[in-house]
Amino acid sequence: MLPDKLREIIDWLSDGARSAPTPSRMMAECCERLVAAGLPLYRVGIFIRTLHPEIFGRNFIWRPETGVVLSSVDFDIQEAPEFLSSPLALVFREGVEVRSRLHEPSTTPFPFFDDMRAEGVTDYIAIPLTFVDNMLHASSWTTKQPGGFTEEQLAALKTVLPTLARLIEVIGIRRVTVTLLDTYVGNRAGGRILGGQIRRGHTETMRAAIWLSDLRGFTALSDRLPPESVVEILNRYFDCQVPAILKHGGEVLKFMGDGLLAVFPIAEDDADRSTVCGHALEATREASAAVEALRWSDAAGAEERFRFGLALHVGKVLYGNIGGGNRLDFTCIGPAVNLAARLEKIAGKLHRTVVASATFADATTTDWTDLGEFPIAGFAKAERVYGLADEGATPES
């Protein structure tokens, strides 16, 4: 090993690996630098647990010929036989190093080692990466060097690891922050908060197609079923809408009990209004079909079917931080949001699933049925309301 090169790597990591703009590039460049310093690496794995509602962790696997391959695993991995019979399971469970000289016949019989031997690997070591909160993560290092790693090479590797772990932790904290913001307030709001828009009253005006939906009969449902069942139903009900909204360029801003508020941003000059409203309408049809197909059965076998109401409108909304003291909410308000809420109530009275304002209906090429003009509480003038031409009134539940 070259001591000067090793010192350069540690300094580079300590300075934030600024020449590598992404985690994958940082990992690749770090391995390349270690090889240049004299460490004969063949395959390197970094395994990081994460704080995400669906993802248990991420794997960064580096090889000289392929660079870094990134993958993620869900929570089922904890019970998967291939993981439980792997050396990494031991690292995560006990926080210990696992070293195996694969060219020696007495190697610990992990099935994974057979694959490594087939690739010509002679030595394997898995080393815990411990973050400041004592959460365990893991790294694995292999070589094809005859005889395996030397003690000098392993000592050099372990000299670099603490600094590498700190940088991975910093990158991980930022990723977790972004993930949590995206999960709880949405991508657009999360980006603004992370960008520094954190003060009360820090708002901006945005033109958008507004989506406001509500589950019909939710109060009676909540009274009739156990709370655990209601939560499960709500999650499945929102699963009918959220993927469609995200797929077509919308952003979910808020869940309000059984209500959902989303926006589809429109350019300030209104040039893409027709396109955006068309995307919102595509999401509407997909969500409506999904809710229509949703079924839920209780312990006695009684089947529940569901209906929802959805109002679509276009207008300017005030988008930003609203709240009291140090408890803020990043959301949108304004007359356009209020009108959408009133329209959703009208949808219920007319036994319609989808209704739209004249502003939204005029922006699309879809056939609409004029449902009439209705006075809107809190608004000076009545609003003409439209329903989808291919949708009739639904019977009351």
Q: How would you describe the overall organization of this protein?
A:
The strands form 3 sheets. Strands 7, 8, 9, 12, 13, 14, 15 and 16 form an 8-stranded mixed β-sheet that branches. A 6-stranded antiparallel β-sheet has the order 3-2-1-6-5-4. A two-stranded antiparallel ribbon has the order 10-11. Helix 1 packs parallel to helix 6 (151-185). Helices cover 39% and strands 29% of the residues. The N and C termini lie far apart (76 Å). It is built from 13 helices and 16 strands. It folds into 2 domains: 3-185, 2-Layer Sandwich (Beta-Lactamase), CATH 3.30.450.40; 198-388, 2-Layer Sandwich (Alpha-Beta Plaits), CATH 3.30.70. It has helices spanning 3-14, 23-36, 81-84, 87-94, 111-118, 151-185, 187-194, 218-224, 227-239, 242-247, 273-293, 335-349, 358-362, and strands spanning 43-49, 57-63, 67-73, 98-101, 123-130, 136-143, 203-215, 251-256, 259-266, 295-297, 303-305, 308-324, 327-333, 354-357, 368-374, 383-388. It has 397 residues and is of the alpha+beta class. A hairpin with a 2-residue loop joins strand 8 and strand 9 (259-266).
Q: How do the strands and helices of this protein lay out in sequence?
A:
Elements: H1 3-14, H2 23-36, E1 43-49, E2 57-63, E3 67-73, H3 81-84, H4 87-94, E4 98-101, H5 111-118, E5 123-130, E6 136-143, H6 151-185, H7 187-194, E7 203-215, H8 218-224, H9 227-239, H10 242-247, E8 251-256, E9 259-266, H11 273-293, E10 295-297, E11 303-305, E12 308-324, E13 327-333, H12 335-349, E14 354-357, H13 358-362, E15 368-374, E16 383-388
Parallel strand pairs: 12-14
Antiparallel strand pairs: 1-2, 1-6, 2-3, 4-5, 5-6, 7-9, 7-12, 8-9, 10-11, 12-13, 14-16, 15-16
Helix pairs in contact: 1-2, 1-6, 6-7
